[in-house]
Write a structure and sequence with these properties.
The chain contains 9 helices and no strands. By secondary structure, it is mainly alpha-helical.
């Protein structure tokens, strides 16, 4: 039996290389925006040549799709830490709020990248084809939450799930952007959103 030669560097798998490319692209988007996304800079950060980079992401569309894939992976991993099974619509909504708070405080780069790409996707059909469905997927998650809450009684029966989803996602998006000095605490925002959709508390006595 022959021993393996010592100290040989381990070759990255294709999946690992793609993750490294996606993360390098994300870092450049944060630093320079989409317009500053250059294949030469990505290859340099990953430590590969341009030919290898183009093997993994041969087009602009493939590069943006890879970035979107890494974003979906991060959001999915976050959601899996907080199981939804057996919870009411209101409880699931609160989990979504906690995850938003977590992203804002711990990984704000996720929202920076998502916002940058969604806004660019409104003008660039290549980016839009990839990113706008991802944004609508987020909205549809809230549609499902409101439908669940209407069924279990944790939300008012007259709530329109699609309108409510637009209200919540629009509010969270605007909170993140913070266009002006006008502001409110994140807890106050969450509380007001809950009050907008939950049944009124019966008066006591």
């Amino acid at each position: 039996m022959h021993a393996c030669p010592p100290n040989l560097p381990r070759r990255e798998s294709t999946a690992e290389r793609r993750v490294a490319i996606g993360l390098a692209a994300r870092a450049l988007i944060i630093e320079k925006g989409v317009e500053g996304l250059r294949t030469r800079d990505i290859a340099e950060r990953v430590g590969i040549n341009i030919a290898t980079l183009h093997y993994h992401v041969p087009t602009k569309e493939a590069l943006i799709a890879l970035v979107a894939e890494t974003i979906r992976h991060d959001f999915r991993a976050q959601a899996m830490r907080r199981p939804r099974d057996g919870k009411t619509g209101l409880e699931v909504l609160r989990l979504e709020f906690e995850e938003f708070r977590e992203i804002v405080t711990e990984t704000p780069e996720l929202i920076i990248i998502l916002t940058e790409l969604v806004e660019r996707g409104r003008r660039d059909p290549v980016i839009g084809e990839i990113m706008l469905p991802l944004y609508d997927f987020w909205r549809n998650q809230f549609v499902d939450i409101f439908r669940l809450g209407i069924r279990d009684g944790s939300f008012r029966p007259d709530v329109d799930p699609h309108a409510a989803a637009l209200i919540v996602t629009g509010t969270l998006s605007d909170f993140w952007r913070a266009w002006t000095d006008f502001s409110a605490s994140i807890d106050a925002v969450f509380t007001q959103l809950e009050h907008a959709f939950t049944p009124p508390i019966a008066l006591q006595g």
